[in-house]
Amino acid sequence: MTAHDLSTDSHTSRLMWLVAGLVLLLQGFSLFAPMAVLGGAIHWPDSLDYAPAKMLPLLREQLDAVRLGYGLYLGYSLLFLVTGVLTVRLAARPGALGALALIAIGAAAASALARAIGILRWLTGSVSLAEAHAAPGLPEESRAAIEHMQAAINAWGGAIGEMLGVAAFAAIWAIATSLVILREQQLPAWAGLSGLVVGLLVAMPALELFGITPPISIVLSTTAIQLWFMALGLLFLWRALRRSA
To answer: What's the structural domain count of the chain?
Structure first.
């Protein structure tokens, strides 16, 4: 290998750390944008539990803000796949990825897909139901039927988006990635140990799928993984700066 090859490899490595650091910091901070928009418009995330009779008129009244907020949230959710792949790649040794790393990447893809499906309920089916619910002269029986449909869509979408996407699959990714960190030793041990704790916290809201009340809310578990993203992002940027020194 020539000196030019070594220089090119060093530049590629530095660029990878830099890009990963920026992506993880973006992942960590970008959730605040949809939270601000949806929180101000429809009191999200509390509105996820609103009765359809309350939620549908609110959704129609704040439709532009809902589309913007959930559009931003959709972007954040799809970015999770990029975050997941970059983190696993830097946590593993150079070369082919092992089975555990591939499991982590698969979980990141499943999480991003499930989140997207959950979000789309608010941009498609619920919007149509909100418009139908507001139709003049609608019989009470029809209004009640629409509300039942909204309750079913919300429960189905919530199970996929929040319980599977935000909780279960994200937890599998975090735990598998943390085990890769601890085994491969390409990152500090604290990154893997803290990731295991975060993974367990993120998994807890999924207990609701089995009729068990989670010990912590999905807001707290999401906050935990956001802080982990930020910590890893700063670590990756520090690695990039160290390689440029």
So the answer is: 1
CB-based burial, 35-44: b 16+ in 10 Å, e otherwise: bebbeebbeb
Residue 85 to residues 110, 160, 221: CA-CA distances in angstroms?
Answer: 12, 21, 21
Nearest Cα to 233, choosing from 82, 35, 70?
82
Per-residue pLDDT of the chain (245 residues; tens, 9 = 90+): 444 333 434 545 899 999 999 999 999 999 999 999 999 999 998 898 899 999 999 999 999 999 999 999 999 999 999 999 999 999 999 999 999 999 999 999 999 999 999 999 999 999 999 999 999 999 999 999 999 999 999 999 999 999 999 999 999 999 999 999 999 999 999 999 999 999 999 999 999 999 999 999 888 999 999 999 999 999 999 999 987 65
Backbone angles phi, psi at 50, to 5 degrees: -65, 145
Give every CB contact of residue 214 below 8 A, 6+ residues apart in sequence: 204, 205, 206, 207, 208
With b meaning 16 or more CB within 10 Å and e meaning fewer, what string describes 7-25?
eeeeeeebebbbebbebbb
Q: Which of 182, 180, 232, 224 is nearest to 203 (CA)?
A: 224
Residue 170: both structure tokens together = 């994200």
The model's pTM is 0.91
Asked if residue 54 lies in contact with residue 154, where contact means CB atoms within 8 angstroms, the answer is: no
Q: Mention every residue, 6+ apart, whose C-beta is less than 8 A from residue 164.
A: 110, 111, 114, 206
Q: Tell me which residue range forms the domain holding 71.
A: 3-244
**DSSP assignment letter at 212:** P
Q: What is the dihedral of CA 23, 28, 199, 206, to 10 degrees?
A: -120
